[in-house]
Design brief:
heterodimer; A: mainly alpha; 8 helices; B: Peroxisomal Thiolase, Chain A, domain 1; twelve-stranded mixed sheet; 10 helices; 35% helix; globular
């Protein structure tokens, strides 16, 4: 049988992913994440009497901490698995991916394990994040000048 | 290549599983189950090696045999360089062959041992295969605690070890034939759809086995594939009908038997070297002994994937080996 014909059989028996359902829950959970973030910013501005910019950094740190803590406690993967893009697109997803890799390689030692493998999943996020920040930063400078 | 055996028997078996298998529909049939993934050790790799050693020791105890009575140990697992089997063999001190055919390792080990028993080169041989869900996830997929979304066609590696004793002593079930499969590659690149990767190899081996033994498909009371999963099953049925004009009627897949696919969160079903033998030893052989089935054909299927080759955009080859088992009326 030709590969093309076989591919048709495979396609026929391969289930469709529930994009609509997944999208719905990602929308809801992503929205809740946004609300929590906004709540934290307002909270820090009121309680610590800092500017919104500083409070935003505190909010990010808080969410990263919680993402890491919940990953270590072992239940965050189930929540991420259910919420999908709602949780792994925000900063919590980055923290979760990094912490899960660190946990996984803990046994292999500090340097050869955690150090070498912690960025296994997130390494490419950092690399391409930096590269695209550079490209878009340059574009912005060239198109709109440095004063925007 | 097909072999017919006159005097080879699968005397006894031992099965050890992890928590998911215990909670599955066949949970009560396994010899031992662990509640967590560590099996009392510090790492998943150690746990897998421990389940290997424990399986062999329990099997020897069941058969009232000593380590010195065993001429050969054949073992395999999924981990790089077969570490679980190698470290277990170091403890067991039985002459050892480590084999790798991914999830088809079990039937390959059985047929290699059966050949040596038939040729009277060895008297007693043990075949043990292991797999470990977390160990396999770490090596082939993502970190275990990472909860990224998985596709419906993903399979869930079985945790456990399955051991069997093969000899020419007339006891247990008879191993009557075996077919060594050829590697097939139908151009699938998707590592999350192993059923599609392995179905052509499975179909090819079933067809060649029937052709070489001159048997019709009805000769066997049932045919079991290794770990095609719930979608791979349908692909196999349609492919084998179109390509070889065979109707798979009394057919099931061990990957969809070991778990409750609707209630347990295992996607398309089980996989791993231990999947097919665990179901066969714990559930199918006892059914045969109760005379519910007389002859079965077990076709364990293996996707011979490597993360490097997948990243380099290669398609995934697959293999399947078949073992024919028969229960005789005059043996216990």
């Amino acid at each position: 049988m030709e590969q093309k014909k076989y591919n048709e059989i495979v396609k026929k028996h391969t289930p469709k992913e529930d994009s609509l359902k997944n999208g719905f829950w990602a929308f809801i959970s992503g929205g809740i994440m946004g609300m929590i973030g906004q709540f934290l910013i307002t909270f820090y501005v009121r309680i610590l009497d800092v500017t919104t910019t500083e409070a935003t950094s505190f909010m990010i740190i808080t969410l990263i901490f919680l993402g890491c803590l919940f990953t270590c406690l072992g239940f965050f993967d189930n929540i991420v698995n259910f919420c999908k893009a709602g949780l792994f697109v925000p900063i919590t997803g980055f923290a979760h991916a990094m912490m899960s890799a660190a946990l996984e390689y803990k046994k292999e030692g500090m340097v050869t394990g955690i150090g070498a493998s912690m960025f296994k999943l997130t390494g490419s996020v950092i690399i391409f994040g930096v590269v695209s920040a550079y490209i878009f930063g340059m574009l912005r400078y060239l198109l709109f000048g440095g004063n925007i | 290549m097909t072999f017919n055996y006159r005097d080879v028997y699968l005397n006894n078996t031992c099965t050890i599983v992890g928590p998911y298998e215990k909670n599955g529909p066949l949970g009560k049939y396994f010899d031992k189950a662990y509640k967590d993934f560590y099996f009392g050790t510090d790492s998943w790799e150690d746990a897998e090696a421990k389940s290997f050693v424990e399986g062999v020791k329990k099997l020897l105890k069941k058969e009232d045999k000593q380590i010195k009575d065993i001429d050969l140990l054949v073992g395999g697992d999924l981990l790089n360089q077969l570490v679980a089997s190698n470290y277990a063999a170091e403890t067991l001190k039985i002459p050892f062959i480590g084999i790798y055919n991914a999830c088809a390792t079990s039937t390959l080990g059985m047929l290699l041992t059966a050949n040596m028993v038939e040729a009277k080169q060895i008297k007693n041989g043990i075949v043990t295969v292991t797999s470990h869900n977390n160990g396999a996830e770490k090596q082939f997929r993502y970190p275990v605690e990472y909860g990224g979304p998985k596709r419906k066609t993903t399979t869930f590696t079985v945790t456990g070890s399955a051991s069997c004793l093969i000899s020419n002593e007339k006891k247990g079930v008879r191993i009557e034939s075996a077919t060594i499969g050829t590697v097939k590659n139908m151009g699938i690149k998707d590592v999350y759809h192993m059923g599609a990767v392995m179905a052509p190899a499975c179909a090819d081996t079933i067809y060649k086995h029937l052709k070489n033994t001159n048997r019709s498909i009805d000769y066997y009371d049932a045919i079991y594939s290794g770990d095609l999963g719930r979608y791979g099953k349908d692909i196999l049925k349609e492919y084998i009908k179109k390509e070889y004009n065979l109707d798979l009627k009394n057919y099931d897949d061990t990957a969809s038997m070991i778990y409750d696919l609707d209630k347990q969160n295992v996607y398309a079903g089980g996989s791993g070297p231990a999947c097919a033998p665990l179901v066969t030893y714990a559930y199918l052989i006892p059914l045969m002994k109760k005379k519910k089935m007389k002859r079965i054909l077990l076709v364990a299927t293996g996707a011979l994937m490597s993360q490097t080759m997948v990243n380099e955009k290669h398609t995934i080859p697959a293999i399947a080996h078949a073992i024919g088992l028969e229960v005789l009326d005059d043996i216990s």
